[in-house]
């Protein structure tokens, strides 16, 4: 069924693009795009990347060309200024490009395209990770699941791994599923873990690595400050994505305050092209957290709610964005359908 739905979407997108229906969409609106990783084909399998986390480098270049032809492209600061001043062109179609997490491949593959084309963009940084060899736990789990599904386990190893799953994920079902492999299994377990305290997640990762007798990768996958400063000179701005990338709704109010204030301070001290906008890790927030963000001095915050905004955002501390990833935007007709097609909210 999913394949049939995908084929149907390709057909609809092709028709939508073919008749140039997008020419009549989003006048007087701003579309904020949310990217994560931009990868060369050789990097995809090597890094065990979730499908919803990347676009290919050649696809990204096509996206930027399409945006230049069909939008007035703004930096995030320019958007804030328009909202503040009220000088909004009701005939224009605005677009802002954003990236979450500060991946090194943003510097290697996205930045050259942005620099050459003159497209402004904002990258949201988890400041504790910048310049380090630390990996986000979902990527560690993806690697461990790939090893687990591709290895014939001895009874003793299977017992150890099963015990880890039972202790930290409350049952053996994830272990049985992991043995079967597949991206959907990995995605389900990652989603399940997002509701757990970070200490429990790290214990799960460490337990699986120890049970399998493997050492997790240590290579740097996040940008360093020199790369950030270089990009700052070429129209790329940087906002906060917290310090530790913990999901804010799973930690205390005091910890949220530390994440907000410390990450902002670090960005200001590093002398980068800073924009006073926060981006919620995993998109999770609530009204108290949004009030904390505002009180900390941020002028706005980005969510993962699907949709576009108008001359006045419904909630400046939960700005809607449109998530972009390769499996649903790998052609320009599909990209145009994702950007211009029906969305849950069109403010």
What does this structure look like?
The protein has 347 residues and is an alpha/beta fold. The protein folds into two domains: 2-134 and 219-340, Glycoside hydrolase/deacetylase (TIM Barrel, Alpha-Beta Barrel); 137-212, no CATH class. The protein is 50% helix and 15% strand. The chain is built from 15 helices and ten strands. A seven-stranded parallel β-barrel has the order 1-5-6-7-8-9-10, surrounded by five helices. Strands 2-3 form a two-stranded parallel sheet. α1 packs across α15. The longest helix has 17 residues, at 2-18. It is globular, with a radius of gyration of 21 Å.
Topology, pairings included?
Blueprint: H1 2-18, E1 29-35, E2 37-39, H2 41-47, E3 54-56, H3 57-70, E4 72-73, H4 76-85, E5 93-100, H5 104-117, E6 121-125, H6 137-150, H7 155-169, H8 173-180, H9 183-193, H10 198-212, H11 225-232, E7 236-240, H12 253-269, E8 274-279, H13 287-295, E9 300-306, E10 319-323, H14 326-329, H15 332-340
Helix pairs in contact: 1-15, 3-5, 6-9, 6-10, 7-8, 7-10
């Amino acid at each position: 069924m999913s394949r049939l739905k995908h084929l149907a979407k390709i057909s609809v997108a092709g028709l939508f693009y073919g008749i140039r229906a997008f020419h009549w969409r989003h006048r007087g609106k701003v579309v904020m795009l949310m990217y994560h990783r931009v990868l060369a084909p050789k990097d995809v399998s090597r890094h065990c990347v979730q499908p919803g986390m990347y676009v290919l480098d050649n696809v990204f270049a096509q996206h930027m060309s399409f945006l230049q032809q069909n939008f007035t492209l703004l930096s995030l600061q320019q958007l804030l200024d328009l909202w503040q001043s009220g000088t909004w062109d009701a005939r224009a179609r605005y677009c802002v490009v954003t990236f979450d997490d500060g991946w090194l491949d943003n510097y290697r593959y996205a930045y050259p395209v942005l620099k050459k084309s003159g497209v402004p963009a904002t990258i949201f940084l988890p400041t504790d990770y910048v310049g380090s060899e630390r990996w986000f736990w979902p990527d560690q789990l993806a690697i461990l699941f790939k090893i687990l599904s591709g290895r014939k386990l001895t009874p003793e190893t299977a017992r150890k791994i099963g015990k880890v799953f039972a202790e930290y994920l409350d049952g053996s079902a994830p272990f049985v599923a992991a043995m079967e492999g597949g991206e959907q299994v990995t995605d389900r377990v990652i989603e399940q873990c997002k509701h757990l305290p970070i200490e429990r997640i790290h214990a799960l990762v460490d337990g699986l690595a120890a049970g399998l007798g493997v050492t997790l990768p240590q290579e740097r996958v996040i940008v360093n400050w020199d790369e950030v400063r270089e990009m700052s000179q070429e129209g790329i701005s940087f906002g906060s994505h917290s310090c530790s990338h913990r999901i804010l709704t799973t930690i205390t109010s005091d910890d949220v305050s530390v994440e907000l204030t410390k990450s902002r301070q670090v960005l200001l001290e590093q002398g980068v092209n800073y924009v006073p906008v926060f981006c919620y890790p995993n998109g999770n927030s609530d009204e108290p957290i949004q009030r904390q963000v505002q009180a900390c001095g941020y002028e706005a915050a980005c969510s993962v709610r699907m949709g576009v905004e108008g001359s006045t955002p419904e909630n400046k501390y939960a700005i809607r964005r449109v998530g972009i990833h390769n499996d649903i935007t790998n052609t320009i007709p599909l990209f145009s359908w994702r950007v211009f097609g029906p969305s849950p909210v069109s403010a």
